[in-house]
Design goal:
The structure is a single chain. This protein is an alpha/beta fold and 309 residues long. It has one domain: Aldolase class I (TIM Barrel). The protein contains 13 helices and eight strands. α2 packs across α13. The longest helix has 23 residues. Bound molecules: glyceraldehyde-3-phosphate, 1,3-dihydroxyacetonephosphate, sodium ion and zinc ion. It holds the Pfam family F_bP_aldolase.
Length: 309
């Protein structure tokens, strides 16, 4: 059924796992994810960014997600607006039937971030919709990718996190903890601020945290991309052991997009290289979809949410 994330997060928090929140942009990506979820019996969060909405039109994506919900009656499915920017966008998505809304005011001054989050909460809550907010700054979402040194300077502050949650009334909080969006998260050895995750977790007992930028940049796909004409030699993600460690802590939602993109791209490149005469989209999108399915199945075990639907 279509649900908000309240119950999902309660279970995840209590039992020390996290739920995968996967970004979708088209039918094949969505189908690959959902096949994995159905096979592994895991709860599901599908999310749509503003970019996704511009690319595929929200109406199309929403129609695809409606089919997902209808065809998987035993799976709890939440749909989240990823990185909502304004109150108006958030309102539009609440009105459109999304069950979860992220308002990303992380670039705003602290008090303004609280104020815009509170405004979204006041609109969403009476309509049964939950709100995710963000504190601290991740790299990669603005055009100029923030370097590692800069990222570590923008780690969420525990005192602010407590105040933010109290004052804004948000249901979950994405905290900058050393990750960034995209395929180039670290220049040297990956590190996450587990001490900060731990402290915020301790100061906000029972409160679900969210980790953005959680893709691992899997070697299998990076290698295929580089082998078949792609150019991502320096790509680096969050090692899976670290994702598992965070999932066992207060992190209850783990956002993954880059790993989906890389799986699809790797397989398409492989088909193009190995079968240059092929021009039927089903013959390359199909293997891409299968690769997403297998990758997501594996991911659900990394997060610990397999079998938890
Ligand atoms: O937050 C970043 C997600 O990977 C979505 O990316 O805005 O390019 O769709 P996008
Ligand atoms: P990745 O780029 O690591 O997949 O992160 C996605 C994300 O945080 C979407 O909000
Ligand atoms: Na967790
Ligand atoms: Zn994000």
């Amino acid at each position: 059924p279509l649900v908000n994330t309240k119950k999902m997060f309660e279970m995840a928090y209590k039992n020390g796992y996290a739920i995968g929140a996967f970004n979708v942009n088209n039918m094949e990506i969505t189908q690959g994810i959902v096949q994995a979820i159905a096979e592994e019996k895991a709860p599901l969060i599908l999310q749509i960014s503003r970019g996704a909405r511009e690319y595929a039109k929200n109406s199309y994506l929403k129609a695809i997600i409606d089919v997902v919900v209808k065809e998987n009656p035993d799976i709890p499915v939440a749909i989240n607006l990823d990185h909502g920017d304004t109150f108006e966008t958030c309102k539009e998505f609440v009105d459109d039937g999304f069950t979860s809304i992220m308002i990303d005011g992380s670039h705003l001054p602290f008090e303004e971030n609280i104020a815009i989050t509170k405004k979204v909460v006041e609109y969403a809550h009476p309509r049964g919709v939950v709100v995710e907010a963000e504190l601290g700054q991740l790299g990669g979402i603005e055009e100029d990718v923030v370097g590692v040194d800069d990222v570590s300077k923008h780690i969420a502050d525990p005192d602010q996190a407590v105040e933010f949650v109290e004052k804004s009334g948000c249901d979950s909080l994405a905290i900058a903890c050393g990750t960034s969006h995209g395929a180039y998260k670290f220049k040297t050895a990956p590190t996450l601020a587990f001490d900060v995750i731990e402290e915020i977790g301790r100061r906000l007992p029972g409160f679900p945290l969210v980790m953005h930028g959680s893709s691992s940049v899997l070697k299998e796909f990076k290698d295929l991309i580089n082998k078949y004409g792609g150019k991502m030699p320096d790509a680096m993600g969050v090692p899976e052991e670290m994702v598992t460690r965070a999932s066992k802590m207060a992190m209850c939602k783990v956002n993954i997009d880059t790993d989906l993109r890389m799986a699809l791209t790797a397989k398409i490149r492989q088909v193009f290289a190995e079968k240059p005469a092929e021009f039927d989209p089903r013959k390359y999108l199909g293997p891409g979809r299968d690769a997403i399915r297998d990758m997501v199945r594996h991911k659900l075990h990394v997060l610990g949410c397999a079998g938890k639907a």
